[in-house]
Amino acid sequence: MRVNDILEMIINGGVPTKKELSELIETFRRGGDIAAEIYERARGVAEALRDEHYGRRVFLRGLIEFTSYCKNNCYYCGLRRDNKNAERYRLTEEQILECCDYGASLGFNTFVLQGGEDGHFTDEKLVSIVSKIKAAHPKAAVTLSVGERSYDSYKALRAAGADRFLLRHESATDEHYAKLHPESLTLENRKRCLYDLKSLGYQVGAGFMVGSPYQTSENLAADLLFLRELQPQMVGIGPFIPHRDTPFRDYTAGGLELVLFMLALTRILLPKVLLPATTALGTIANDGRERGVLAGANVVMPNLSPIDVRKKYLLYNDKLCSGDETAEHIKELAERFSKINCVLDMSRGDSKNI
Known about the structure:
Blueprint: H1 3-11, H2 18-30, H3 33-54, E1 57-60, E2 62-67, H4 93-106, E3 110-115, H5 123-136, E4 141-145, H6 151-160, E5 164-166, H7 174-180, H8 187-199, E6 203-210, H9 217-230, E7 234-239, H10 256-269, H11 279-284, H12 288-294, E8 299-300, H13 330-338, E9 343-345
Helix pairs in contact: 1-2, 2-3, 2-9, 3-10, 4-5, 5-6, 9-10
């Protein structure tokens, strides 16, 4: 089957095999006229599907990076345990609540608490934080991104009022997953966490890096097919960007064009999903987030963290932490998206992929 026919089959609701999806992705990666043709077709359909379900709205989430400590040693992450040059910090409960209050004063209705897997933040402490955020801002959504935990932990946090949970699967192929993580972390357990979260009623976000070391077109095809199986409410896709203090320091960053193609394919496979234009996308290209939105994305997450810690949460080199990436510059962000006929939406913006 020609790649154009494979793409049309997917657009028309067909289920591709991994081989067909791999062939489509590999053809795009080789470039040339055919790559431009299939990208423009996929991008146009993805944008139309996004508009059909959500309109020209780009939803804002207030990001609070509350701890840079992490017990894990993932080979790609600047927060990895063995990085002795990382600047570590923890926000207090009071500081986190102040961030939410500040965000609410700006109009935010979703707060995303993101951090490394930090044992300091026990279930008891996180339950207290989530409960107090919901008490102060009952109509707002609370999203957690705190890694792999037990079923009982997720259950307690859900009962405290957490609405959503972000946990990228990173790779849906065991062999590739093992090349990105130490032996203590497995794809089997990551998937267990995602299905536990779904069973507890969270709106769940999965996702992966594009262009990570050792990644093949077959890996990317497996990622898309896993997402189709999981049916998450959100999917985070961004480029791999190396960090100078990790084992992957000398690897090349993922390319913008392939990220955009994967965003478009994800929107086609999951038409109602919420799809961020990530900070990493804006890091590798000045107009990366806008181009992400034009490829079907519809979420951005400005930073609500205290100004003095924003540069310390360094997952990868040159991470954006100022300018339009910050909550203080919503007006400038709105102007940027208005140029592509999109409007910022500060409502909860719940997923329709339920």
